[in-house]
Structure formats: C-alpha cells, structure tokens
Design goal:
The chain is α/β, with parallel strands linked by helices. Helices cover 13% and strands 24% of the residues. The two termini are 32 Å apart.
Length: 192
C-alpha cells in the first residue's frame, strides 16, 4: 500500500475545552459567525461543534472543573509542559479580515493590528477561554505548498531531505483488516 494514496481533506475538527459553554457560543457563533451544527452531552459533560467550512470545525468540550488558559501571546515560547499555541482560521479576503477586526473591536474585545507575514495577512485575538486565535488570509500569488521555502539557518537534519514525505521510512502493513466500528458519543443523538 502506498501511503501517498491517502486523500486528506484538512483538519476535520479541533477539540478544545471550556468551562463556560454559553460564553464560548456567544463568541464563536454570534461574534465570529460560525454556525453550530452538533451539540450533545449528559450531566457533567457537553460537546458542541461550530462549522468553519464544509470540512473543518471547532469543537468545545464543556468541563465544569477546567480553568481558562493563562493568556499567552501567539507564538511566544514558553517553558514546561505545553502542546498548543494558537488556532488560525482562514478567511477569504482582506476585506473579511478588516470586517472581523472591526467586529471584535466593536464588541470591546482586544484584537491586534493587521500583520503582513509575506504569505498571509493576520489579526490576533483571544476567545473567552483565553485561547489564542488568529484569523488569516493567504497572500495572492504566494503558494508555499507548491513552492516551499525552508529557510531556517540551523534546521534539523531531516529538513535537508526535502519537503516531500519519505514513505519508505516506515513499513506498510502486510494486510489491512476490515474496519470494525464501535458506537461513540453522538451516535445516540443522531438516531443511529
């Protein structure tokens, strides 16, 4: 089996946590404009999904004992256990980016000035859980996926091997058994 035959569609959803689902819904649905498309739960546990595009979503677990993150500027290094810096949500145009910036400011929410990174234009803010959020617009005619730029002066040695996957590093399975599905959260609310 050649792993290059996988057909990825992007990140299906990014699952985050909140203590206050109501405030989270107000921010992501009503202020940012992401529709809710699935919500379920039971005592002490809820999960809600917000649609970003036809194939990408944000999901939030509501856990009563979780604490909001300490606010940390986007991309600034930290020390100690850490696994997530920020989420960047793609937008179609600079006009959309300007409108989002104005909308956040009108709601009294801090938002950065627009930043030109050369390949994207971005603004930065935080949601009610102190999750660092970036909104980004690709720069027209800059396609780094077609023309990668690996410009770090002291990269890990693997970078010298190029940008494309080297599938031969890992063995292919000798056989692929039929997929067995077990019922999971959400199946019961969909009537299946």
């Amino acid at each position: 089996m050649d792993p290059s035959v996988f057909k990825f569609t992007g990140i299906h959803h990014l699952a985050l946590a909140t203590r206050n689902l109501g405030a989270t819904i107000l921010f992501w649905r009503d202020l940012v404009g992401l529709p809710l498309f699935l919500g379920f739960g039971r005592k002490g546990y809820r999960q809600y999904f917000f649609s970003i595009s036809e194939t990408t979503a944000l999901a939030f677990f509501e856990w009563s004992e979780v604490e909001a993150l300490e606010e940390k500027d986007h991309g600034v290094p930290v020390k100690g256990p850490f696994g997530f810096d920020h989420v960047s949500i793609g937008m179609e145009s600079d006009a959309d980016l300007a409108r989002m910036k104005a909308r956040l400011e009108a709601a009294g929410i801090w938002v950065s000035e627009a930043v030109d990174h050369g390949f994207i234009h971005s603004i930065y803010t935080f949601d009610p859980n102190h999750i660092a959020v970036e909104f980004s617009v690709p720069v027209k005619d800059v396609d780094l996926r077609a023309h990668p730029v690996l410009a770090e002066k002291n990269p890990p040695p693997q970078v010298a091997e190029g940008p494309l996957p080297l599938h031969h590093r890992f063995p292919d399975p000798e056989n692929i058994p039929e997929l067995v599905l077990y019922p999971g959260e959400g199946k019961d609310v969909l009537g299946g």
